[in-house]
Amino acid sequence: MDQPRHQRQLLADLAEQVMRERGLTPDFPADVLRQLADIHAIDNSPGIADLTILPWCSIDNDDSRDLDQLTVIEALPGGSTRLHVAVADVDALVPKDSPIDRYAAHNTTSVYTPARIFPMLPEKLSTDLTSLNPGQMRLAMVTSIDHDAEGVAGKVALRRARVHSKAKLAYDSIAAWLENDAPLPAVAAAVAGLDQQLRNQDALAQRLRERRRELGALEFQTLQPKATFAGDDVANLEQQEQNRARQLIEEFMIATNGAVARFLDDQHRATIQRVVRSPERWTRIRDVVGEYGETLPPESDGAALQRFLAQQRVRDPVRFPDLSLTLIKLMGAGEYEVHRPGSRDVGHFGLAVSGYSHSTAPNRRFPDLVTSRLVKAALAGAASPYAVEELAEIAEHCTRQEDAANKVERQIRKSAAAMLLSGRVGERFDAVVTGVSKGNTWVRIFRPPAEGMLRGARGQRVGKKMRVRLVDTNVERGFIDFEPG
């Protein structure tokens, strides 16, 4: 007789099923495992800089094991700074067109679900040999960007280097320290001078963030609660909050991705860029904003939209995540696109940047691995490893597979929420109406943060707060149903 599956295993099995339905491969084939068995050491090629003496550190989620980036900052005369960002040199161990590369090229991304992670690369690589783990010498692609005292970017240099992380830090504990709510974590305090290093990094990141906001960078807030487990049972849904440590890494990754795109364009190399076009549905965005009593210009204007978002975040924080989601959908999804030398940059409307690559996460995103190879070829003065037509095919495939991966993650998050609530049918919750469309109404409850459909209640107004009663859940489909009550 089969043993009953616990909740973690049920979610993992469901995730694997949905992966296959979406055209993603959940398990590594035999040829990948054979190649993996023969990988033992890092590349010892000549001409690689030694930057191991710098006080590198990583900042990531508490449970992250695939560490793609390290950061460090140097003071320059006149209040200027030099930001160094080291990104794992995955290509050094994963040659183009090898079995591991072909698997990565098919899935194009790691898929993160509550009960199981489906990594783009085998864990021997992504969490070990190509992960920038503390206390280990690793190969990296280092981007160095000079900024003046106002945070304006200047000189950029790229090079291959050996690096050595001094500490693995976590977003929430570092943010609590930066915001004077907690002491410096012991792992950081153990490294001489790392406290001031982190303060300097935070200061630069906040200057970069302010400059992007002035240019019209959009700051949304969406709800993607993460399931937590007690043993093998879903125990809660926790919302990941934005904080200064996350902003620090976000700003440095944006700066690096832009710098890499400019470098490749200056080298007259065709590249893959990440683009979010100026919204074609700007009129509809203006209509949504008009419902809040505000007016946007007739033509798309990121700065004006950001001013509205900043106001609404303060005025109505409860509804702000739902407003954010509505506007994100109207803006349209990001996509990958080939950028040819000398052509006009489409840019990234949401980030308020022009040329923008994806280059900082090669352990978990295939476009970043491709970009790394393009940079290495440019630095060596070699021909591009990819023809323009091949890059175009990769860009289209990565866009499609990333969309599939997002749908898998979203569906399993909903299934985890349904699983958590399955034993609470009949209970009542405080809720807010989040959407009304085609006769259907959706509500979001606050504790735990979960969304579902509201039965038998037409004519509800978005933003209305109400009491609801849980009437049904469906774990496999991720459905949660409420009724007024």
Structure notes:
The protein has about 475 residues and is of the alpha+beta class. Helices cover about 35% and strands about 25% of the residues. The chain contains 13 helices and 17 strands. The protein has helices at about 5-20, 30-35, 100-105, 125-130, 170-180, 185-190, 195-215, 245-265, 280-290, 300-315, 320-330, 365-380, 390-420, and strands at about 50, 55-60, 70-75, 80-90, 110, 115-120, 135-145, 155-170, 225-230, 235-240, 270-275, 335-340, 430-435, 440-445, 450-455, 465-475, 480-485. Strands 1, 2, 3, 4, 7 and 8 form a 6-stranded mixed sheet that branches. It has a 5-stranded mixed barrel with strand order 13-14-15-17-16. Helix 1 runs antiparallel to helix 13 (about 390-420) and helix 7 packs across helix 8. The longest helix is centred in the C-terminal third of the chain and has 34 residues, at about 390-420. It starts with 6 loop residues before the first helix and ends with a strand.
